[in-house]
Design brief:
The protein has nine helices and three strands, in the order ββαααβαααααα. It has 170 residues and is mainly alpha-helical. The protein has a three-stranded antiparallel beta sheet. α6 packs antiparallel against α8. The longest helix has 24 residues.
């Protein structure tokens, strides 16, 4: 996930590692190499920590324009059921595209561009990020936010009694 606080752009370590591991060839390498010194240090921290890689606004602009990177502020106030519905829609879109790709046959697959493959990979990544946000809200994982961030930083509070009550009806 990405987060903008003032002029600074923050990314979760998980996102940085995703870009660094080359899973997304659509990412211009210059955006990562500016932060290359952080990689060994990042691997020692929680993958859900937000870290600032781009202190100059112009360096983080490209990151903020990428819709496959979930903007935490965009989803912070949305109810969980709405985020789950978005995930379900995106998963159906992924399934549709994969089915379409399988039905093309070998000759059709040759025309399937690298950009389309990257879009499918990024869509899957977005769904996974939204699912991590849901886990955060459920208190199953923790996000460490920058100290200067003033948005919603706590998971949804659900009492143990409520959890037990809902688990009874499953």
């Amino acid at each position: 996930m990405k987060l903008k606080v003032g002029e600074k752009v923050y990314l979760q370590i998980y996102e940085i590692l995703y870009i660094a591991d080359g899973l997304n060839s659509a990412v211009p390498l210059q955006y990562f190499f500016r932060a290359g010194d952080f990689v060994p240090y990042l691997r020692l921290r929680n993958n859900f920590d937000f870290v600032c890689l781009f202190k100059k606004p112009e360096n983080g602009e490209w990151i903020m324009k990428q819709d496959w990177l979930v903007d935490y502020d965009e989803y912070a106030e949305k109810p969980t059921y709405e985020i789950k519905a978005i995930c379900k829609y995106l998963e159906s879109e992924i399934t549709r595209r994969r089915t379409e790709h399988r039905l093309l046959g070998e000759s059709g697959k040759a025309n399937y561009s690298r950009k389309e493959v990257d879009e499918l990979i990024n869509l899957t990544h977005k769904v996974n990020s939204l699912k991590r946000l849901i886990k955060f809200r459920q208190g199953k994982i923790t996000f460490n936010f920058p100290s200067e961030y003033r948005g919603k930083t706590t998971p949804d509070a659900v009492s143990p009694f409520t959890k037990k009550l809902f688990s009874f009806f499953r």
